[in-house]
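lol ok so funny story. i was supposed to be doing the assay writeup but got distracted and ended up predicting the structure for this chain instead. priorities right. anyway since i did it might as well share w the group, maybe its usefull for someone
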Amino acid sequence: SVTLQAGGDITIGALAQIGAGTTLNLVAAFGDVDAHGAATINGIVEATNDVLISARDNVSLGANVESQNTNVTITSTNADIIRTAGTVSALNGTIALTAGGADGDISSVFVDAVTLSFSGAGTGDVTIRDVGAAATNTNISGSTGSGQIIVRAIDGDLTISGAISTTNYVELQVDNGDLLRSGAGSIVTANSALFKVNDLGLGDGNI
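and the output, tada:
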């Protein structure tokens, strides 16, 4: 396994690439007395097994982050997870996204995984796009406090496999597949929910 720990920020430059044959762990603000440290990922990060990225401040995603066999876990203890480019992939496992603080956003993150769990915080909004291939399914669950939750799948199915909850608005959209529910899947909101399923030729368009 490979572990990188920084007392302040961790920055992976655009020309860099970090890989591990087993597990890769990137930790910003490790043991930092002022409890600050961000992670900026502008170069490819990949591992055969788990990829773990954690920071006290923002985690900024500007390149692909991939686990080939297991899971990807990205955590910002006090701030946001923000994407400008790239996809977070766990083709045989789970992606877990956790933002923190009073306004913990998960912003425009592209994912490709078997299972997706997310947790915004406070007034933070969650916007996620599932870019998995056609004829694939992603199990989803997650929450935020009083922010919006918007999850959109481009080519595969979405299955609500656990609670999706906020006091605000929930929108689930599937462009080329089905929107399904299994097990303990539920929508919990004090506001409103929109379920939108399009049939653009690759799926049945069922709810």
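The longest strand covers residues 106-119. Residues 76 and 97 are 9 Å apart (CA to CA).
back to the writeup now i swear
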